[in-house]
Design goal:
CATH class of the largest domain: Mainly Beta
Helix content: 25-40%
Number of helices: 7
Distance between the termini: 140 Å
Strand content: 25-35%
Largest sheet: 13 strands, mixed
Low-confidence stretches: 88-94
Shape: rod-shaped
CATH architecture of the largest domain: Sandwich
Number of domains: 4
Order of helices and strands: HHHHHEEEEEEEEEEEEEEHEEHEE
CATH topology of the largest domain: Jelly Rolls
Number of strands: 18
Length: 303
């Protein structure tokens, strides 16, 4: 009955008689102490906004933990991305051409994958695909190069002005702005110019100047003169002679009162600039002045 009184007393439901009887009980004093102690307690303040923020933060932490609990999927994604990047890089590198170039007053020797040899003259550029070399021996040339081709599949040199095809031979190609010359020193060379093909047997040349085919004489040696550090010309406009001089010596060439269309026949040294200047100026009846890396050619009657 006392337990029932206690519940009613806490809820203020005891009658006067019941309350008087409950107060006379031995347990009443203890219950009074408990009530006074509980009344002294204060409930902690409750911040609704802070509680919501804490809850959202805990949710984010839980999501992060879920990702960390699945490292295999994360690593698989990284591996897939790395694989795609590796494959793309491989095919990009494989598609790149092998390229060689020379500056003015420089030349270089190149050995191709089939042991063919190329000597690249000054101010020139040569490129080919090493990955596809076994199936097709194709090269791209800007400038001048002397080729010693190993026997094998068709060997093709492509220039802006024409295409040269051989099987195994030695030949020289010069392709520059307005000037295109192919000379065969051994074997047989096929030259395609403006859609027309022409065969060049050993000891013959094909020359185009300003889009016009020019008759040429047979070469007097077994290789081009520039291989032996000389530049030779036979009835070639002076403008191309001076351009070659500029490439061989890496100098700036200027002219004054000079007819650049006049034909030049002769040879100049690629190793002695003073001798080269005399070799050009004397047959052309020109004077010249050399100051550091600048050369001025002018006519004799020019001031």
């Amino acid at each position: 009955m006392q337990e029932n009184y206690l519940a009613k007393w806490l809820n203020n439901e005891l009658s006067e008689e019941e309350l008087a009887a409950f107060e006379r009980s031995e347990e009443y004093a203890s219950y009074q102490k408990i009530v006074r102690a509980s009344d002294a307690l204060e409930a902690p303040s409750f911040d609704m906004e802070k509680a919501l923020a804490d809850f959202q933060a805990s949710q984010r932490n839980q999501e992060t933990k879920v990702i960390k609990m699945r490292p295999s999927q994360y690593l698989m994604r990284i591996a897939a991305a790395v694989t795609v990047l590796f494959i793309a890089t491989y095919f990009y590198i494989a598609s790149l051409n092998e390229t060689f170039s020379t500056e003015y007053a420089q030349r270089t020797e190149i050995v191709l994958p089939d042991a063919s040899e190329v000597l690249l003259n000054a101010g020139s550029k040569l490129s080919y695909s090493e990955r596809n070399w076994d199936s097709e021996r194709n090269l791209s040339l800007e400038g001048e190069a002397f080729f010693k081709v190993a026997k094998g599949k068709k060997f093709t040199v492509t220039t802006d002005l024409g295409t040269i095809s051989v099987l195994g031979t030695q030949f020289n190609v010069e392709s520059r702005k307005g000037f295109f010359e192919v000379t065969c020193y051994e074997g047989l060379v096929s030259v395609t110019f403006q859609g027309k093909e022409q065969k060049l047997p050993s000891g013959t040349s094909f020359l185009v100047v300003n889009d016009r085919i020019v008759p040429t004489e047979a070469p007097l040696s077994s290789e081009p003169s520039w291989v032996n550090n000389e530049s030779s010309f036979k009835s070639i406009p002076l403008t191309y002679v001076l351009s070659e001089f500029q490439r061989q010596y890496n100098v700036t060439v200027e002219t004054k009162n000079v007819d650049l269309t006049q034909l030049f026949t002769g040879t100049f040294s690629n190793t002695n600039i003073n001798l080269a200047l005399q070799s050009i100026s004397t047959p052309s009846q020109l004077s010249y002045s050399l100051e550091k890396n600048k050369v001025l050619f002018y006519a004799e009657n020019a001031p």
